[in-house]
Design brief:
It is a single chain. This protein is α+β, with helices and mostly antiparallel strands and about 250 residues long. Helix content is about 35%, strand content about 25%. The protein has 2 domains: about 80 residues, Beta Barrel (OB fold (Dihydrolipoamide Acetyltransferase, E2P)); about 160 residues, Recombination protein O, C-terminal domain (de novo design (two linked rop proteins)), CATH 1.20.1440. The chain is built from 7 helices and 8 strands. Helix 2 packs antiparallel against helix 3, helix 2 runs parallel beside helix 4 and helix 3 packs antiparallel against helix 4. The chain is elongated, with a radius of gyration of 20 Å. The model has no long low-confidence stretch (mean pLDDT about 95).
Length: about 250
Amino acid sequence: MNQITVTGMILAVTPVGEYDKRVVILTKERGKIAAFARGARKPNSMLVGVTTPFCFGEFNVYEGRASYTLMSASVSNYFTELRSDMEGAYYGFYFMEIANYYAKEAADETQLLKLLYQTLRALENPRLPNRLVRCIFELKAVSIEGEGPQVFECVQCGSKEKTEVFSVQKGGLICEKCRKTVTDGITLLTSSLYAVQYIVSSSVERLYTFIVKEEVLKQLEMITTSYLEHYTGKKFRSRDILETIL
């Protein structure tokens, strides 16, 4: 077995047997990996505090033929404030479930890991509405994974003129001439269009630098929620839980 150190965040934890845990870690070096943490449920184990969701840092693991074994970890951010905020924590669990869905083993998931980390930091910022953070994360996550919408020209004909209509089914903006070809078109406010374009095109580091009015936020919620549902075809359990507490 080879011992390696990976940088990442714990996405999910499952109890195994009487004393062990199985952790899913989104890493920069190996994509998504699953590792067994032997004895991590024992009160005196050094792995107790480093094998919980939201832990970000360096993880020392043995790489076996079929699985990894977590030996130790150096956590640089526990997101303590998020853990004490019930609403923020549930948003965080939802974002981690999406990351878990998209991430693949042995793939380059650097941008997805960066997005998740910056998003959890944004949840700790009282000036940013959690609803806006959710919209930004949903849209940027699908964009990073190559399923993002076309937001700079008509997805039908390529025109850049009068493209204020958004179609989830078509996968992006529709110009006025092509509008009759869609049945789910939503006419975007100018600020909504700018926000969508900014989210899709900006670097992760610059995502959480703006706020919007309520009318714009409602349009963003409508678009991102429908888009994610349509292109993943998945019902996220943590989103159902989240929506029951809001």
